[in-house]
Amino acid sequence: MTFEQWAFVADLYTPMIVIICVISMVLLGREQGLRSGLFALSGILLSTAFIYAVMFLDNSVGIWPAFNLDYSTHTAIALVFIGYFLVYSSKLRGVMVLSMVGYAALMMHQKYHTLTDIITTTICVIPVILLCQYKFSEMAKR
Fold it and tell me: DSSP code of 115?
């Protein structure tokens, strides 16, 4: 495939996982009640706010550039939705993790980000994303 074709595939990844996530949240809301669906959405929204706050901080202070790296917003936003599946969907968990690995490989192939960019972004954001998702899932159970 050409660079442009691979770029098109890369551009489809995040919208596809967003659609799958929205469908999953709607199903969660139907099965466990609107409260559960809204708490899941709250976890997504708070996680999204966090990853963009990190991006803003990096743009202001230059944390990643100080190490000759780049904060991967592509990685961070995808991880928001992957985090949802890690917490809420044991059926899709493995497939979504594999899809993220494939997306990371594609980003490196396209030279959007290096492996180090992706790993450092992941290490920085995934604990907070999972904490947000997990805490909101726990609140929904109360």
Answer: H
